Amino acid sequence: MSHSEPDSGTDNKSPQMETLFSTVLHIYEPGDEGYQQKSPQQETATPQGDEVDRVVVPEQVIRSTETPVAKTPESQKVVLSTESPAAKRLGINQLIPKSLAVASRPKNRHHTTVVTFPVGLENTSSDSRSRHSAQGPDVSWDDYDSDGDGLAFRRNRRNKSYRAAVTSLDIEAMTAGTASATTLKRVDETRESSPGPASGHRRKRTLGRKRNQRGSFKDATPRLYQEIRERGLHSTNQDEMLEDFVVVEPPAQDQGIVMKSYKQAHLTWSQLPQVKESGILSTITPQERKRQEAIFEIITSEHSYLHSLGILVRHFKNNAELKNTMTTTEHHHLFSNISVIHTVSQRFFKDLENRHNDQLLIRDISDIVQNHAAHHFEPYIVYCSNETFQQRTLQKLLNDNSAFKETLKNIETSGECGGLPMLSFLILPMQRVTRLPLLLDTICQKTQAQTAEYFAAVWALKAMSKLVTECNDGARRMERTEQMYTIQKQMDFGKIKPFPLVSASRWLKKRGELAVSSEELSIWKAFTTRSYYLFLFNDVLIVTKKKSEESFVVLDYATLDKVEVEFGKDAEGQASSPSKNNSSYLSFKLRMTKNSEGKLEQISLVADSRVDRARWVIALKEQKQDKVVTCTDGLPQYEVTKTYMPKEPDELGLRQAELVIVLQKEEEWCYGERMRDGESGWFPASCATEITNPTAVEDNVQRMKRLRKETNV
Amino acid sequence: MSFVPGKPVTAVVQKIEIQKLRQGDNLILGFSIGGGIDQDPGQNPFSEDKSDKGIYVTRITPGGPAEVADLRVGDKIMQVNGWDMTVVTHDQARKKLTKKKEEVVRLLITRKSLEEAVKHSKGCHPRQ
Known about the structure:
The complex is a heterodimer. By secondary structure, chain A is α+β, with helices and mostly antiparallel strands. Chain A contains 24 helices and 14 strands. In chain A, helix 4 packs across helix 7 (158-176).
């Protein structure tokens, strides 16, 4: 009966006591020493119904730091958790068979000893504490005290919460004043995690789990999200990597003390100790394993993202010094609702983690994702829409406000931020929200089709994609509206018949200065202008003369369907020497069949370079082409290596690890289409490299197609 | 081609007749469709109005019946054999196109270039 006590720990006083130890720690066999002693006393000595299967180690034994299984019948009433598997588990050792136990136990034991015994033993415990503390010196009693609720869902502290819980027990013990009252509620560190399914080696697993589960992917310092490139984003190589990884490892059971460093770079699900120990790797199919990996990756990446967000909120947003260097409006524009996003992410992660703890082999996280994407992620839309304001405010502050710049530099160079600039933190939500659909898609791929999980995954993916679109739309709308207002203010129509510029469906596509071809100037040199400044909107072209940086006089305009463009007549002779000083090979003609006065007008313009000309021509012609385009199959795919912020309206913003299909290349600029949403624009060729692996190319195409549903008929 | 709820939609359409090709047990048309009222319209690279949830042609199999019949990528399908395609789900659209009993589908499609062409011809010949 002592073997399997039901969890009567529910009547323990402190809610913080995790009393789920149940029968997991089945360490002592009937033949064990001390076992007999325990049973009779157990009932009497533990009003709280301690589940300890083990013998309670009386004072003397502990002090002697010997095998805890001492036969000390006299003080059986004191039930100490020192012998509890919990204590053992706390150590860096695995739970080892009794025969080997001697060396390791003392370490664990002392830790709890301190707590349970009101005075006396504290000195002993303190030495062992340092020995014992696996997480290094950062654990201190102060931490425990401050850790108000021992069960606080803290990163890095999970395996210490046991101690915190024990601490609170200690207080009770103290107040109770008697040794007997210090019946330790054996704190079961594995409270959060269910014992899990099929495993015979419960104790090992729980040991592993306690130590490892929390420590495994929640390292003391999770990596910053900026540095992670989720494996789920790679379509091809991931599988091979996993393939050869898993097969090899034989479950290394409790052979002696195993010290693992859990600060691994990229812990995968298969590498989790509890997974290895439970042996399910051999029972699941490879596809299922990959699916689990993908799910796990979402969880770990969310963890890392949360960590980085936390840094942003704590170190940048809440920094009083920084706040003082700017106005409240600026502060608001700069940080927007990042705190709300932080909270949202915390909730999301919490749900994910709960699921991870409940089930070793996770059935599905799609419901969690769907729920959050549909109902809780609205702040992302707000944040993304605010992106332009944010960028602009940051730019302005960096340029004009030296106090801000100084303070920011100080914060950035402090260790916490990993030396990364604040900008990289600010764009985290955008990065995260665009990566999530891709990660979800990976799960969809690995889920067996036509099962309930598959449909759930597809729904989740849709919900997330919808969110991303809304974010994109929001951002774009804000940007355009603002731009239109600015331009409207700068335009002076002069003698030309004005027309309302600001409209919900109009945005600027390109603007720039173009010189007038010298041929035309020959006669009217004195009177005509040397250069025009063109504004190309999505439906109208305005030709102006620039008076100053902020003001333009409109000379002419035409709707785009009335505009035609053709290359200058020397287009064929481009190969000829560039020394021609009229550089007519860079010219192109702009013909307006119906301008502001209803007449035919023609201008011959010269661009600065071939790239420039190509850009103008493409921009002007784009209307004609229907955008139907290209079957983009067969065109080269490029992967973005460096984030690129668009500086002009016809440029394409690119984030690292994105994919683009290149339609045209001109000197060091490329004109391409973003795979994630089909937007096209120019970007420097140096930001991207070509993907040459044909499998990868095909996979990417397929993936994009899945993200936009398409059926063959 | 934007759609105002409640108002009739007008468009310049072209009739395209496609003979299905037998491939084993199936009758195929040789193109792919995307879109639908249950899909995300923002992902559609062909639509002018990003809230257009109509059915669009996303791919044409080279040499297939659709290509032969002059269907083009980016065309929006308005009707199939008399059935409306502007307000249907993706799956409904697929079903209308893949009826086993029908060997021919008559589509009404619209594309921007058709509109342009008509406008242009109207513009140049105002008497028309």
